[in-house]
Write a structure and sequence with these properties.
29% of the residues lie in helices and 22% in strands. It is α/β, with parallel strands linked by helices. It starts with a helix and ends in an 8-residue tail after the last helix.
Length: 427
């Protein structure tokens, strides 16, 4: 299956060229997901933004730009990466939006210098914009009082979520913005997909009704942003989201908002995970196979040790997230045995086969030998972008495969790269 998805790419040859672990992206899968989003937003006044925090690789940004998919950035540097990919920042139409709960590093400077649309998620950010001399359009991220992410530890809306301004406080912020010479032109909320696919459309309908109740209080709004959250199904055989129903909901909401206000209201969505999750794999090499025996502490386990760790893909360790794992070129008839896949880090949590309670959850896999390659599937979203130098390891290289040709798009970090920012300078 993986070989077909990667158009027959010889992963062993690639592993010899760039070393393991590494990321490999399939351009055809990215294009398939882009086509689905373009179909979803084909009606007038519907617009997709790519939540680039999911994966900011240059070829992906270039492809989004080529298909007129706008950008939702969450840091000043993400804004600048979008600009490097060809997106205009100071355009009359806000192709790039900066959504954040805190201005840090160069984020406020980027807004002030380029006039990129700020979408604020905390009330005091308005005062920071005013102090910086910003007078322009403004987005407000609302916490509508409801919402839930794809796992328990991903809380995107409601009283326990840090994201956004509580809905009945946001109007006060909007009035203060007017006094500072800023106009609220966009309302935004991100409530997530919910832990079950069936919840997604219901959640979006709930959000449409919420926005309809807000519009009268914001007379200058030009756009309503429904956030991201289109589900990607990590487990094989799970039911998929009804994108046609979602597209119909968006079109109805756009017509409803426009009729309600007497002006055209643009409706936006900002998928990230959906666009890129299935497009990448982490390729890792088996370094050992070892076993423990049952005792009063629990059952014995077969541990397959690999050279990728949570510094390369943190989702299983952080969320107990499921990623399908397969063995490269394993015989289709091979017998399966329960297997724990563990990485090189000096952490007991460095295991790719855990459940949401952080307990070991062995997978049925063919027997492997030292040197075999494993594929960790669906690593395109929040994979490389959340990787780190933990244990002073260099971040893995990234390979882009298009029309059967592999391209190195970022090299492996070296020891010198890791030390480059260190200094000992009196302040």
């Amino acid at each position: 299956m993986a070989a077909d998805a990667l158009q027959g790419t010889d992963l062993r040859w690639l592993a010899e060229r760039v070393g393991t672990p590494f990321y490999v992206y399939d351009a055809a899968i990215v294009q398939t997901r882009i086509d689905a989003i373009l179909a979803l937003t084909a009606a007038p006044a519907l617009q997709a933004r790519y939540a680039m925090k999911a994966c900011s690789a240059a070829p992906i940004l270039a492809r989004m730009r080529a298909h007129q998919i706008w950008i939702d950035a969450v840091s000043g540097n993400e804004v600048l990466r979008a600009q490097a990919a060809g997106y205009p920042l100071a355009a009359a139409v806000p192709e790039v939006m900066l959504t954040t709960d805190v201005f840090r590093d160069n984020a406020l400077d980027v807004v002030r210098e380029y006039g990129v649309l700020p979408n604020i998620g905390s009330p005091h950010m308005l005062e920071q914009l005013a102090a910086a001399g910003y007078q322009g359009p403004l987005g407000i991220r609302l916490n509508p009082g409801f919402g839930h992410g794809h796992v328990q530890s991903c809380d995107t809306g409601g009283p326990s979520s840090k994201h956004g301004i509580w809905f009945d406080e946001a109007l006060t912020v909007a009035h203060a913005a007017t006094r500072h010479g800023m106009t609220v032109t966009l309302l935004h909320a991100h409530i997530g997909s919910g832990p079950a696919v069936a919840e997604f459309t219901d959640n979006m309908q709930h959000l449409a009704n919420f926005f309809a109740g807000c519009l009268e209080a914001y007379p200058h709004v030009q756009a309503i942003n429904f956030g991201g959250g289109i589900p990607h199904l990590y487990r094989p055989g799970a039911p998929s989201a009804d994108l046609a129903a979602f597209g119909h909901l968006l079109q109805e909401a756009q017509e409803r908002f426009s009729q309600q206000t007497g002006r055209t209201i643009r409706v936006e969505i900002e998928p990230g995970r959906y666009l890129v999750a299935p497009a990448a794999y982490v390729i890792t090499r088996v370094t050992d196979v070892k076993r423990t025996k049952s005792n009063t502490k629990g059952p014995g386990q077969t541990f397959v040790m690999v050279d990728a760790g949570f510094c390369d893909l943190i989702r299983p360790a952080m969320y107990g997230a499921f990623h399908q794992i397969s063995v490269w070129n394993a015989p289709s008839h091979a017998a399966l045995e329960p297997t724990v896949i563990a990485g090189p880090l000096c952490e007991s949590g460095d295991v790719f086969t855990r459940d949401e309670a952080e307990l070991l959850q062995p997978r049925p896999l063919p027997a492997v030998q030292i040197g075999d390659l494993l594929l960790i599937h669906d690593a395109g979203a929040y994979g490389y972008t959340m990787s780190s130098n933990y244990n002073s390891l260099g971040r893995a290289p990234q390979v882009w495969v298009e029309d059967g040709i592999p391209y190195l798009i970022s090299r492996r970090e070296t020891f010198e790269d890791i030390l480059r920012t260190e200094c000992f300078t009196a302040l």
